[in-house]
Amino acid sequence: MKTIKIFFITTILFTLSAHSQITKGNWMVGGYVNFSSNKSEYKPTNGVKSTSSGSGILLSPTIGYFLIDKLSIGLSPSFSYSNPSNGDNTFGYGGGPFVRYYLLKPDNRINILTHIGYSYFTNSRDSHSNGYVLKAGPVVYFNSSVGLEFTIDYSRSSSSYNDGSDFLSKSINIGLGLQVHLEK
């Protein structure tokens, strides 16, 4: 009987605190990791195009502020590693702003996020790139403050090298994120 009472009390407490803090004036801190598979097109100055494919990982901490209920803006520095099929491994870093909107009511235990971000990047191959990312997916809240995100992302970036050559990259990514929402 004691076990049943503890179970019901725990369930009630968890249910009462299961809504998220995606309301005006709150902060969001956390981050995400993306695993990517990409196809790239390289256009050197000599005019001979080449394509490659590869995989990579992107780590990106985030900090955001909710301007209104369900809408946040923020900054996200990023660190990456890529392994192209016909080249050397590349390490990079950069960052940029993002805008994020949650589609369902703030008190839902599961919500859907949409996200658009811009980033400027530099890497170990002396290239500089800028691009954008679009992502969407469900967020599952463990309690009122912590949410686990599962996203599908599309990113597109263009790079230029010191020798004048250009590089265009498009990728589909699967992402996993953890955000902590801090109440005002």
Topology (SSEs and partners):
Layout: H1 2-16, E1 27-43, E2 50-68, E3 71-84, E4 90-102, E5 110-123, E6 127-141, E7 146-161, E8 166-182
Antiparallel strand pairs: 1-2, 1-8, 2-3, 3-4, 4-5, 5-6, 6-7, 7-8
Q: Could you spell the SSE succession in H and E letters?
A: HEEEEEEEE
Classified by CATH, the class is Mainly Beta
CATH topology, what is it called? Porin
* Helix content range: under 10%
The unreliable regions are 7-18
Biggest beta sheet attributes: 8 strands, antiparallel, barrel
What is the number of domains? Answer: 1
Look at the structure and give the mean pLDDT: 83
SS summary, helix count: 1
Indicate the overall shape.
elongated
What does the radius of gyration come to? Answer: 20 Å
Count of extended strands: 8
Major beta sheet, strand line-up: 1-2-3-4-5-6-7-8
Which structural category do the helix and sheet elements fall into? mainly beta
Strand content: over 45%
Report the CATH architecture: Beta Barrel
Query: Termini distance?
Result: 39 Å
